[in-house]
Design brief:
Order of helices and strands: HHHEEEEEEEEEEEEH
Radius of gyration: 22 Å
Mean pLDDT: 82
Number of strands: 12
Strand content: 25-35%
Shape: globular
Oligomer: single chain
Low-confidence stretches: 1-6, 67-76
Number of domains: 2
Structural class: alpha/beta
Helix content: 10-25%
Length: about 220
């Protein structure tokens, strides 16, 4: 309609999905060493209560784009040759359409690192991971077409659990070789969990109530 006011993009209301994606980008930035723990806590508080796109955009202006985001579909960056993740008592997670590098160095003191390869952008057929896990944890979530080798991981008093299986005949999209040390922490390789059944699905799958027996 002629003369109709068009709202500025920044003033549009943000959704729960928009907030969640910004929260994840902030956590990734903290895991990369771009934000301190105090900065992360402060920005997370703003992100979780943001009402508009402008409020969310202000939290990311000094951070590089990391994936196809809510603000215009930023293209996924080309994978790096090498990436480093260091966590102390914090946690970081790579999920969604993140670019998998060719080499990764992971150091987890008392925090947690989760790498979810389910929807990751894979440009190289192999990934070398050098892991140093003290009292923290590292978890690799891999679909059926990703093979993980953990035979060269040295374990002290911690644990290495490999719970993902590749079905015979499945074309391998990515081979991950993990080496390094696990002291008192844990390294886990597992398959993606099935999606949770919502309330409606639970309601529809409930067994029919038993009929009362005649007296």
């Amino acid at each position: 309609m002629s003369g109709e006011l068009v709202p500025d993009h920044g003033e549009l209301r943000a959704s729960h999905e928009d907030r969640d994606e910004v929260v994840e980008r902030l956590r990734v930035a903290a895991g990369d060493g771009r934000l301190t723990a105090e900065e992360l806590d402060e920005r997370l508080g703003v992100a979780l209560t943001a009402r508009t796109y402008r409020e969310l955009e202000g939290l990311l202006t000094d951070l590089p784009a990391t994936g196809p985001g809510w603000a215009g579909g930023t293209p996924v960056p080309a994978p790096k040759d090498r990436s480093r993740i260091t966590v102390a008592s914090a946690s970081t997670k790579r999920e969604g359409s993140w670019a998998v590098p060719r080499q990764m160095e992971i150091e987890a003191d008392s925090g947690s690192v989760v790498l979810d390869f389910t929807s990751a952008v894979i440009a190289s057929p192999t990934l070398e991971i050098e892991a140093s896990v003290r009292s923290g944890s590292v978890t690799l979530i891999v679909p059926p077409d990703v093979f993980v080798d953990v035979d060269e991981v040295a374990v002290s008093s911690g644990s290495v659990r490999h719970r993902a299986q590749v079905d015979p005949g499945t074309p391998i999209r990515l081979r991950i070789h993990v080496a390094g040390k696990v002291r008192s922490g844990s390294l886990t390789v597992r398959a993606p969990r099935p999606p949770r059944r919502g309330f409606l699905g639970w309601l529809l799958r409930r067994p029919a109530p038993r009929k009362a027996l005649p007296r």
